[in-house]
Design goal:
The structure is a single chain. The protein has about 300 residues and is an alpha/beta fold. The protein has 3 domains: about 100 residues, Hypothetical Protein Ychn, Chain: A (3-Layer(aba) Sandwich); about 100 residues, DsrEFH-like (Hypothetical Protein Ychn, Chain: A), CATH 3.40.1260.10; about 100 residues, Hypothetical Protein Ychn, Chain: A. It is about 35% helix and about 20% strand. A 5-stranded parallel β-sheet has the order 4-3-2-1-5, with helices on both faces. A 5-stranded mixed β-sheet has the order 6-7-8-9-10. Strand 6 and strand 7 form a beta hairpin. The relative contact order is 0.12.
Length: about 300
Amino acid sequence: MASLLLCLFTGPRSEGRHTVEQLARCALDAGHEVGVFLAGDATAHADALQPLRASGARVVSCSADAALRGWDRPGTAGRGSFVDLGSMAAEADAMLCLGCTASLDGRVVARHGPAEERGWLAVRLATALTLTGRSVRVMLEGAGAGWAVPVDARAWMGADPGADVDGLVGDAGAALFVSAATLATHGLDATATRAAVQVVDDAWAACAPAPPPVAALHVVTGELTDALVVHAIAADAHDGVEVRTLGLHDGVYETTVLARALGDQGLAHVRVGAEDCRRRGVAPPAGRADEYPAIVDALLAASTSFAW
């Protein structure tokens, strides 16, 4: 028996809840322990996912995020915080985060800055992972580069990004990396970055654990041609990691095209979600479509997993 942790950060108008529910049910049916953590807009799914608790899953919803949205109910089962996420991650054998890219080996990708909630969710997720005792490394990518420089977001966020970054590094022991190219692309001066943030040539490589994982599962829910996704998959393969790519949600479109292009040589390495294909009328190449039980097995077999 293994333990699977499913984290969801996306709201009602996404496939995330359905995917989490199906994976959780399949894992429970296979005799595994299941934890589900909801934060941000995903706290809207707390009631819909309550039946999982009756089936044996631990379902925790961030009460602070629910309260900000006006739907927190004190006394309701499953109210919790990111501290609970830390304990759930410490007990898990595998983790999949939908809506925020992170892995159980301590890597977190912040692609949104402190001016919006999704950036804060990444930082809070990284803080929670430090509670596992693992080394946590945060990659600041795209607008996430905003965390590397002083930004005053207190007028609408009610919090100080600088204090959170300094605390994540100084108090929690995490490391934050941003590439010089990302800073330049966003018009940011590398000399003006916070002391807690390290400017490097390749932030993904700087975040990589040593030694590298044996096997990595990259779950693509959007564009497979996303530059960071391509770089992450290629870098893992270059480091000798056994890479498996799985297309879910809208990710089945480009992943299906890639799978057809590779032919039989990539049969075991490029897969697509069978149900997500059926919902879109996409016909995957023969032998490449995985039902939810097979996806659960892939998550538990991988040394580390990312959802993009």
